[in-house]
Amino acid sequence: TGCFTYDPGFTATASCKSAITYIDGDAGVLLYRGYPIEQLAEKSSFLEVAYLLMNGELPTPAEFSAFEHEVTHHTMMHERLKNFFQGFQYDAHPMAMLAGTTASLSAFYHDTLDLEDPEQRRLAAIRLLAKMPTLAAAAYRYSIGWPIRFPRNNLDYVNRFLHMMFEVPSEPLEMNPVVAKALDLLFILHADHEQNASTSTVRLVGSTGANPYASVAAGITALWGPAHGGANEAVLKMLAEIGTPDKVDAAVARAKDKNDSFRLMGFGHRVYKNFDPRAKIIREMTHKVLGELGVNDPLLDVALKLEEAALKDDYFVQRKLYPNVDFYSGIIYKALKIPTEMFTVMFAIGRTAGWVAHWLEQQEDPENKIGRPRQIYTGSASRDYVDADKR
Ligand code: CMC
């Protein structure tokens, strides 16, 4: 009973009003605060994009340097937070560690828990943006048994992260500008995507008045699934399993088989029924980055063949299934020597900018109320309890 609109998966329900990101899925358009993703990818930086998403406008040089200074100032994690890592199994997935330690931030930073105070909200958002790469790199180093590194605050956002990931005392880390630029660009492309599953999760948790660290930790867990951010890890595993271009047709046939649960990972999107504009940028970038780094990855040949085969196959054409952002990103991460288990963590670092922007917007929204969907009940009608000996 009940007269509710039944909309499983929320394919036709707008859950909020937002001025952050615009998507036209039929035309393949993506705008952050009105700026086309292509222009931001070419001209901006991840930190500038984070400022734009959070504040609504591009920063002046003075605003940017104040923002960068503030983010840099908050990169360190509390020394006792490191004890959390010791509690994880040595081979824990870094996403598990990232979600757990992000939630734990609320236990350390009590000066940002008064949600009525706009300055505390802003500071919490800055802390999340600043500390996410620190937590991410710590998760990686813990998983391989290396000591956790301090953030080097004389470096920029991306190089600081690379340093925390890969630096060993004996050999100073060579900072490769091609690697840093590629990573920065990937963070820009992942920074926001309106009401995707993880951002909707952040908002749903945020709607209850829970603190921002708890809300973003919930977003991280939603991102983890292979239908969402976990797809980049799944794509690389799939390409490795396919192995060679001559096995591509068999994989496409499997993906079309309705009795087989196998899907082409990195293909299809709830909103894009055309090329994902981020995938177009990443595709071009893959060739460039692999060329510049002198990497010859046979998986790229498998990916190109797979894309070509799927795009001319009726099954994929009729359903408007195109490569999405995750299809090529894994190949680039691999070329940048980011381990496969860290791919979704990379996505989380970039998406943190969007999560905190949405959380800030929601807190200021006078129409915000607790998210509380209804259901169509399909269970038993009212009945009497049966004693155990009579069942
Ligand atoms: N391979 C084979 N068939 C597919 C695929 C695929 N990757 N994606 C969708 N389909 C089919 C699906 O079986 C269905 O067919 P039919 O109408 O005959 O039942 C039709 O296309 C529509 O699919 P859907 O599952 O109803 O669409 P959705 O909007 O619920 O799902 C999706 C979107 C992204 C979860 C889905 O396309 C998918 O599972 N893709 C693979 C995972 C992936 O790449 N995810 C990353 C998404 S982009 C970045 C992000 O959000 O993190």
From TrEMBL:
Pathway(s) where this gene product acts: Carbohydrate metabolism; tricarboxylic acid cycle; isocitrate from oxaloacetate: step 1/2
Family: Belongs to the citrate synthase family.
GO molecular function: citrate synthase activity
Active site: 269, 326
InterPro entries reported for this sequence: Citrate_synth-like_lrg_a-sub, Citrate_synth-like_sm_a-sub, Citrate_synthase, Citrate_synthase_AS, Citrate_synthase_bac-typ, Citrate_synthase_sf, Citrate_synthase_typ-I
Domain of life: Bacteria
Name of the protein described by the UniProt record: Citrate synthase
Chemical reaction(s) catalysed: oxaloacetate + acetyl-CoA + H2O = citrate + CoA + H(+)
Keywords tagged on the record: Acyltransferase, Transferase, Tricarboxylic acid cycle
Entry's Gene Ontology cellular component terms: cytoplasm
Listed Pfam families: Citrate_synt
GO biological process: one example: tricarboxylic acid cycle
